[in-house]
């Protein structure tokens, strides 16, 4: 049985940290508001959008076999990064460690040396390893294998005014000169690390579930899509 997890591209067993109990698979809770209307039975359900979910918490129970690495463990298990669990190696979570590892408790707790690493994660499970970018030199289609829309990173190479369409949504770009990257998860558009988002018109492009057409109007030589496939 796998007894490891990877956080920030570092596998736990490197530091002598082994998983004793993996958390159950947790589905995110949809963010909704329930409103009671006088004179009406039941309540109204108000959602914030088509797919809006709250974060999930993942707690990984661990055993430390090498007390000499406590300082490295403490430095490693902080901040944010991608989390891969050994019992689900084909997905990763965008995670942040939310608890402080109590080093003194580990030392006093011999021979048990156990602790819980608690992560607050974005509500989606992303495909791991992350798929490569998909390139288009002409109009085509793209198939989303997940059960929720994808937020891609798109690089467009061209000049002048460009309309990029994915599925039923269209993004308009003005004054393109070379390559512009549309980072949908970060809500940024940039060229040469300079913010170019003021030259965009329209909604940030997403890839719906199923198969969607990819097309454009204007002087475009290439479109590259890093899809970021995910599931809830």
Commentary on this structure:
The protein is mainly β. It is built from two helices and 19 strands. It has helices spanning 70-76, 103-108; strands at 5-7, 10-11, 17-21, 32-35, 44-47, 56-64, 80-85, 88-97, 114-121, 125-127, 134-136, 140-144, 153-166, 169-183, 188-191, 194-195, 200-201, 210-226, 230-231. The strands form three sheets. Strands 1, 2, 3, 6, 7, 8, 9, 10 and 19 form a nine-stranded antiparallel beta sheet that branches. Strands 11, 12, 13, 14, 15, 16, 17 and 18 form an eight-stranded antiparallel beta sheet that branches. Strands 4-5 form a two-stranded antiparallel sheet. A hairpin with a 2-residue loop joins strand 15 and strand 16 (194-195). The two termini are 25 Å apart. The model has no long low-confidence stretch (mean pLDDT 88).
Q: How are the secondary structure elements laid out?
A:
Blueprint: E1 5-7, E2 10-11, E3 17-21, E4 32-35, E5 44-47, E6 56-64, H1 70-76, E7 80-85, E8 88-97, H2 103-108, E9 114-121, E10 125-127, E11 134-136, E12 140-144, E13 153-166, E14 169-183, E15 188-191, E16 194-195, E17 200-201, E18 210-226, E19 230-231
Antiparallel strand pairs: 1-2, 1-7, 3-6, 4-5, 6-9, 7-8, 8-9, 8-10, 10-19, 11-18, 12-18, 13-14, 13-18, 14-15, 14-17, 15-16
């Amino acid at each position: 049985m796998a007894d490891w997890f990877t956080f920030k591209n570092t596998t736990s067993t490197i530091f002598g940290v082994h998983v004793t109990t993996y958390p159950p698979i947790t589905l995110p809770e949809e963010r909704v508001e329930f409103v009671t209307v006088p004179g009406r039975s039941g309540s109204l359900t108000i959602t914030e959008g088509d797919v809006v979910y709250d974060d999930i918490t993942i707690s990984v129970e661990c055993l430390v076999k090498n007390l000499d690495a406590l300082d490295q463990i403490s430095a490693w298990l902080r901040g944010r990064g991608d989390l891969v669990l050994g019992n689900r190696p084909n997905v990763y979570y965008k995670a942040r460690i939310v608890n402080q590892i109590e080093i003194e408790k580990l030392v006093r707790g011999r021979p048990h040396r156990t602790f819980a690493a608690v992560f607050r994660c974005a509500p989606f499970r992303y495909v791991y390893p992350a798929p490569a970018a998909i390139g288009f030199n002409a109009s085509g289609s793209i198939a989303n294998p997940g059960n929720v829309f994808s937020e891609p990173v798109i690089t467009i190479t061209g000049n002048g005014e460009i309309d990029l369409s994915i599925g039923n949504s269209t993004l308009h770009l003005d004054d393109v000169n070379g390559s512009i990257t549309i980072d949908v998860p970060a809500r940024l558009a940039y060229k040469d690390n300079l913010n170019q988002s003021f030259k965009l018109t329209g909604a940030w492009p997403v890839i719906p579930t199923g198969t969607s057409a990819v097309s454009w109007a204007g002087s475009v030589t290439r479109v590259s899509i890093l899809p970021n496939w995910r599931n809830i």
